[in-house]
User: What shape does this take?
Amino acid sequence: MEAGFSVLIGLFFAVGVYLMLSRHIVHILIGITILGNAVNMLIFTAGRLTREVPPVIPLELYVPAGPTANPLPQALVLTAIVISFSFFAFLLVLAFRTYQELGTDDVNEMRVAEPKGEALPPQGY
Amino acid sequence: MRSVIFRTFAPFITALMVLFSIFVLLRGHNEPGGGFIGGLVGASALAIYGISAGVGPARRALKAHPMSIAAFGLLLAAVSGVLSLFTGQAFMTSQWAAVEVFGVTVDLSTPLFFDIGVYLVVVGAIGSIALALEERESD
Amino acid sequence: MAGPSVSVDLSAAMQTVPVQLADWLVVAPSILTIVGGMLCLMSRKNIALAPKLGLFFLGLLVISNLLLLAEVLKRGVITMVMGNWLPPFGIAFTVDALGATLALVAAIVAFAAGLYASITIDNSGRRYGFYPFLLLLMTGVNGAFLTGDVFNLYVWFEVLLISSYGLLVLGNDRIQLDGTVKYGILNLIGTNLFLIATGLLYGQLGTLNMADITMKVQESGVSGPLMTIAVLYFLAFTMKAAAFPVNFWLPSSYHTPRIVVAAVFAGLLTKVGIYALLRILVMLMPAARAELADVIAWVAALTMLTGVIGALAQSDVRRLLGYLVISGIGSMLAGIAMGSVLALSGTVFYAVHSILVMTALYMAAGLMAAMAGSYDLRRLGGLYGASPVLAGVFLVLALAVAGLPPFSGFWPKVMLVDAALTLGWNWLAASILVTGFLTSLAVGRVWIYAFWRGGPEGTVDGGSVSLPGGGVLLAGAGGQSTAAVWVPIGILTALIVLFGLQPEWMMEVSSRGASGLIDPVGYLRSVFGGGA
Assistant: This one.
């Protein structure tokens, strides 16, 4: 099970990295999202995949009756999903605003902060 | 989107959804559910009201700015963790109290207030994003 | 819910000893900044109240972190576990001398920035929420310095990242959007790398508590997977810290925001990356760090030299300072590469120095631009006549950043060079010294052009030029006194001079922090009790 998931995660990473190599912001953002999902699956797989019951302790006991699924990766993944979701929302709005203001979504043409061919600073003292 | 049918039913749907979101919030302490998912339901109620009645009326109906609601939620969550200061226990240790209200025992606890805080953060943050996006669509 | 008759022994998983009041200082920075930030956010329409409320909580933060450092120096490492759950089950906040020192310096810088912003951030900036974002940024910075859990560290990184986005676009100019896109995307990739490494680490060791990881790595020794994880962490944190091959986001974004925002960022954000490197590589995986030492040393030397050469090629003062931030990161990395107590103390001291001096330099640059109306070296000039005090302060800061005595930049460089020569890494010592020389060229040129010459380009050199007072920075101050700009610069400069003239105390604290990293017995004992 872990082996299959590892291949899938690797595939996700490949797609994510490929998209991030693009010059267009939208592609980069989709790449980051796919990368984020790859990371989430990686954490989930790192917690070992088992076909066990949910880690709920029965009412009359104080410890789980038998082996249960590992709840920690789920908590970690949930946190990571919420964070990456909010970042994606923010960056999407930011990219849209930038597109409106700069008129391009090509990162090579975004040279407002670092204009091309700037003059050298004064030489000598 | 502003058909007569939708506009007529939207307030009822919104009211039901807010009620359901609070139900999910409180149910989360014994059964699946909780502040986060309840907050998402509440935020979608807000979004539906915003779509049907317009963003302006939705903001007016909310009284406070959604970001202020989120801020209050985070404040409530943080403060609920501090209460354990007075019992000599570590930050975020849960405190429990049973209160008798009209003959019914109500279990009050700091996790409950933390969860209400989470609920408000989610309603405020997601609601403010949703309303902002709807606003952009209309102009 | 709380069962009255508990039949299992809870003391195996839960802390049963009452928590001392002083232990609350460990979580106080996070609570204070969250409470303060949220109160500011709720009342942000009240623009007169915003600076007062923000400064009140930032002041409380300084006091609380001061008490925390005093407590740590007195008692050693302090741990608090959330919700009484013992580590490694619960999330632990563990503070040693390193974390407490950096948290205190960060709080001082944030307070100074809050004061500086009280007249340099206009009303629309206040309404947008400058103070809530600043406080939330401090939540993230402090949380990162104080936490004892790797995943928690990731969460604090994200908290400070999202608030830094908010601060960066404050103003909504075209140039800011451009800078934020690059900063945002590259930093998000960096934190994703951090998360990947954390996921792999969890899969490898089954724990996320830093003390627990330290012990497990000590037992298992360095292995192939652990090396991979260490390299990933190194890449992620050098990206955060803006080290040589992955530093392009910094010069393309740090000159775009409001000057006070740039000051806070230049002071704090990259140092959080350095702190994470110290914590994760040096303390958690010392064997992996030793394997990587040569790579880190090369990265360090290249970061120093490319940074300062970049600074020499800039005519915009803010961009020049951005490159100097990078160059300083190189010096700190050199200490991590060497890994001896002396070298690491040098890194810690340098981090403190760099936080103070970079923030002060950006603030001084803001004042220069306010007087001359531009950040461009070609348009600056004659500022000595306009403000001899600023000329003096800038000269002090320039000498400090170049590492010349008697200011705070000198001592950490001495420690680093000494450590390099002791270890026989003469080339690293040489590159630190060459960097210092080139830095003094870069900042010296700024001082000579902006202050010493008579006027900007195109005017008669040597003649006194009347400069327009006020300018871009102080517009909208509404007739307030300019004390709120001078006091923060004064505080930071005073600290720089103090650490330069009286370095013993800071050296003592940094060497305690450094030896705590190399031999984390106190850290482990604090987290796991006497048994560790």
User: Anything to note?
Assistant: Residues 2-56+65-109 of chain A form a domain with the Helix Hairpins fold (CATH 1.10.287.3510). The longest helix of chain A spans residues 72-102. Chain A has one domain: 2-56+65-109. Helices of chain A lie at 2-20, 25-46, 72-102.
